[in-house]
Design goal:
It is a single chain. The protein is α+β, with helices and mostly antiparallel strands. Helix content is about 20%, strand content about 35%. The protein has one domain: Hcp1-like (Pnp Oxidase, Chain A, Roll), CATH 2.30.110. It contains 4 helices and 14 strands. The longest helix is centred in the C-terminal third of the chain and has 16 residues, at about 175-190. The chain is globular.
Length: about 210
C-alpha cells in the first residue's frame, strides 16, 4: 500500500487515500506470428522470441506557423522506426528458414520487389498477469522484415545462439480488458454526473 498524499476530504472522500499498485511483470508475455513462410509455422517460431522493443514513434518534421509574436507548431508525419526482436536459434534452423522465407516474399532473387499485400502480415503481443489471465494485447499492423537476420554467435559454453531482426509496421493498436471496462464505467458515470465538473473539482483540490 502506498499513501498518495492527497487531501480529498472536500470531495467527500477520506482525508488519507492509499493505492495498491499491481505492476505488469516483464516475463508474462507471448508473441504470436500467425503467418507461415518457407514451410515453417509462425506459431512455432513465435515461442523462440526472447525480447521485443517497440513504440518508437518519431515525427519526421514539424510544421511551423507564426501568429504575431508567437509560433505554433503542428505535428508532421508520424512513423514507427522499427520493432526489434531477438530470437533463440534452435538446431532445426526453423527461425532462420522462417525469416529468410519471409524476406524472399519482399525481394526475389533477381532483386524485384513484390506488392506489399503479398508480404505484410499482422502479428500480436499478448501480456498476462501472474495468474495467466490476459490483461492486454498489441496488434502490429502490416509487419515485414526490414533486414535479414543478424546472427550473434558466441563461444561461451552456456550461451545459446541468438539472432535479431527489425520489422517495419504500419501501426500499433493496443487493447486491454481493463481499459474497456474503465471506458464503459466512465461513459456510465458521464450519464449520471458532470465528469468535467468533477475534474475541475479535483484540480481545485490539487492546486
Amino acid at each position: 500500500m502506498k499513501n498518495i498524499g492527497l487531501d480529498l476530504s472536500k470531495l467527500g472522500a477520506a482525508p488519507s487515500v492509499t493505492s495498491k499498485w499491481d505492476l505488469q511483470r516483464a516475463f508474462t508475455w507471448r508473441l504470436f506470428m500467425l503467418a507461415s513462410f518457407n514451410g515453417v509455422l509462425g506459431y512455432y517460431v513465435s515461442q523462440y522470441c526472447q525480447d521485443i522493443v517497440f513504440g518508437d514513434y518519431a515525427m519526421s518534421e514539424l510544421s511551423m506557423r507564426k501568429h504575431g509574436a508567437f509560433q505554433r507548431y503542428y505535428a508532421g508525419i508520424q512513423a514507427i522506426e522499427a520493432v526489434d526482436l531477438v530470437f533463440l536459434l534452435p538446431t532445426d534452423s526453423s527461425v532462420q528458414d522462417y525469416f529468410y522465407g519471409w524476406y524472399e516474399r519482399i525481394i526475389d532473387r533477381q532483386g524485384y520487389y513484390h506488392p506489399k499485400i503479398e508480404y505484410s502480415r499482422d502479428m500480436y503481443l499478448l501480456l498476462s498477469d501472474q495468474s495467466g489471465s490476459m490483461t492486454s494485447t498489441y496488434r502490429f499492423k502490416g509487419a515485414f522484415p526490414k533486414n535479414h537476420l543478424r546472427i550473434h554467435p558466441s563461444y561461451e559454453i552456456d550461451d545459446v545462439m541468438k539472432a535479431s531482426i527489425s520489422l517495419s509496421v504500419d501501426g500499433i493498436v493496443p487493447t486491454s480488458l481493463l481499459g474497456t471496462i474503465r471506458k464503459g464505467a466512465m461513459d456510465l458515470l458521464g450519464n449520471v454526473v458532470d465528469v468535467n465538473k468533477l475534474e475541475r473539482s479535483v484540480l481545485g483540490v490539487l492546486s
